[in-house]
């Protein structure tokens, strides 16, 4: 999956570069994105374009195609501690985590949460994401974009909410 974001039309703020970032997804993120897409299309075919499935899909789609490519290295999206050098966007109960390279003008969506944020819960998206990072599943992607992972400290540091 690849998408290019161009920022909001009519936006008077100066973008960081006239060239947009290319957005890619890991297989992990793409699986969730495609599942959200299928649920939305099913709801639409049943005559329910206002369903929660469509709302969630459109939230994620807007984030991936417009919000993230417009300013992927914005410090307000930066995570800390064990997750430093990784960014996240909160949209309602969803979390989208990515890495970016300004030199390569690329963003890679690593993870799209399927569960709501509930700190300490084993289904907390930050817990799931950090377990995936620890497993090495994203190592090649991090290396391709030249993003170094922070040295693991104690098990988990609380990410910003």
Strand order of the largest sheet: 1-2-5-4-3
Following the backbone from N to C, one meets helices and strands in this order, namely: EEHHEEEHH
N-C termini distance: 28 Å
According to CATH, what is the topology? YaeB-like fold
Strand content: 15-25%
Question: Structural class, please?
Answer: alpha+beta
Q: For this structure, what is the CATH homologous superfamily?
A: RelE-like
From the alpha carbons, calculate the radius of gyration and give it in angstroms.
16 Å
Question: So what's the overall shape?
Answer: globular
Helical amount among residues, as a percent range?
Answer: 25-40%
What is the typical, i.e. mean, pLDDT? 82
| Tally of structural domains | 1
CATH class: Alpha Beta
Number of helices, counting only DSSP H or I runs of 4 residues or more = 4
Number of strands: 5
List the uncertain runs: 1-16
If classified by CATH, what would the architecture be? 2-Layer Sandwich
Q: Main sheet, how many strands, which sense, barrel?
A: 5 strands, mixed
Key words describing this protein structure:
161 residues, YaeB-like fold, disordered N terminus, 4 helices, globular, single chain, alpha+beta
Structure description:
The chain is 34% helix and 17% strand. The protein has helices at residues 27-45, 52-70, 125-135, 139-144; strands spanning 2-4, 22-25, 87-91, 94-101, 106-112. It has a 5-stranded mixed β-sheet. β4 and β5 (106-112) form a beta hairpin. It is globular, with a radius of gyration of 16 Å. It starts with a strand and ends in a 17-residue tail after the last helix. Mean pLDDT is 82; it is low at 1-16.
